[in-house]
Design a protein that fits this description.
Layout lengths: L9 H10 L2 H11 L4 H15 L10 H5 L7 H17 L2
Helix pairs in contact: 1-3, 3-5
Length: 92
């Protein structure tokens, strides 16, 4: 397990989503903001992969995820927008 102040790995984030642990997922997303741009992109892509599966719920995660729409890195913003498109298609 990673240190509390360390950004989460994409694997940790997806594990929390699969477990349905939204409280810890929100905490991981908050820490993810401090990660480098490549880690943010990989993590958001991993979340998008989970979002493509209709068995997982993203209730309460839209707010924390939306913070990445204003990220300083253009690629992170684009990845986040693609994630929201996937969410809209899987949970209309």
């Amino acid at each position: 397990m990673s240190e509390p102040e360390q950004p989460p790995t994409p694997d940790r984030l997806t594990s929390l989503l699969k477990e349905g642990n939204h409280e810890e997922t929100v905490a991981c997303l908050d820490r993810l903001g401090a990660a480098d741009a490549e880690t943010r992109k990989r993590s958001l892509r991993a979340v998008r992969d989970i979002a493509e599966e209709p068995t997982y719920s993203f209730d309460g995660l839209v707010g924390p995820l939306s913070t990445f729409l204003t990220d300083e890195d253009r690629a992170v913003r684009l990845t986040t927008a693609k994630l929201f498109v996937t969410l809209a298609q899987s949970e209309p």
